[in-house]
Amino acid sequence: MTTHETPVVRTHELTKRYGDFTALDRLNIEVNRGEILGFIGPNGAGKTTTIKILVGLSKPTSGSASIAGIDCTRQSKQIKRAVGYMPDRFGVYDNMRVREYLDFFAAVYGIGPKQRRQRIGDVMDTTQCGYMQDKFVESLSHGMQQRVGIARIMLHDPDVLILDEPANGLDPQARIEMREILLQLASMGKTLIVTSHILPELSRICNTVAIITGGKLRAFGPLTKVMKELCPRQTFEVQLLDASQTQQTVDLIRGHATADESVEGSATESLVRIQTNRTEADLAVLLRSLITAGIDVAQFKEIQSDLEDAFVSVTGDSDADAPSDPTSPTTPEDAADLATREAPVQ
What we know:
The protein is α/β, with parallel strands linked by helices and 346 residues long. It contains twelve helices and 14 strands.
């Protein structure tokens, strides 16, 4: 007997209009437990509008959204138990140490004094910030502050974590550490929705992707499936030992090319690039024909498409700024207010 897992996050025909402007147009997504959804799109695409509805800060014009079976609109108070939201910038209080900061928000979340110490210790262990518990939050590096931010939104043990640009502004080492934390959270059964403009980094952690532009969902599904749909042609590189053979190589490949095949050569790089749908057997024949023709091939390899290629195929190469709908708390007072509204319903 086949069983189907109930999605933890689900939207159905989710729509949001501001007057004549449609910010979100019939969005349908489903995310299961333990999945990491990469939610991407240009500025003004509708990502922020979606997040506002999911965390209960905005009501849709039509359609529905739920988290862990809780209606995000009709049960906006209960939804705060199920979700933790970290904006790309969050405020901190001056002269407050990390443990004091987490203790403050644990109290705001409604966690009793007896459970608070244990819970703070648990989230610090998960986010690897125990060693900085006595440091002032404002003195921490951006990467350290991001880890404290994740610890904060985990205090009430939500089912879903929504993180807006968690790797933005981080150095390479901090990005690696952030990646490990997010993968660990998913392995713990948390469902993550992550927005990011650093698409190569995002593709290393997400197993599901949603691409949105102009309020419309353009692509959604498992990462591998979306990549095959949006980047059906493979890219191969022929590295030559002799740059003078570049044009000969291009002409030979084009002589056997199909209508939808693209061949470009660079004598400067001694390189020929092919975008093709050929089978492995056809590519083997092509390589043999190059060698038979006396072409000195140093390397013949496939270049894997990445999430950035898929994104560009949907949106084009522009990411122009559009009118935004800001929701991220940028001051300590705003952060505390959001946490208050996130406090578990007793």
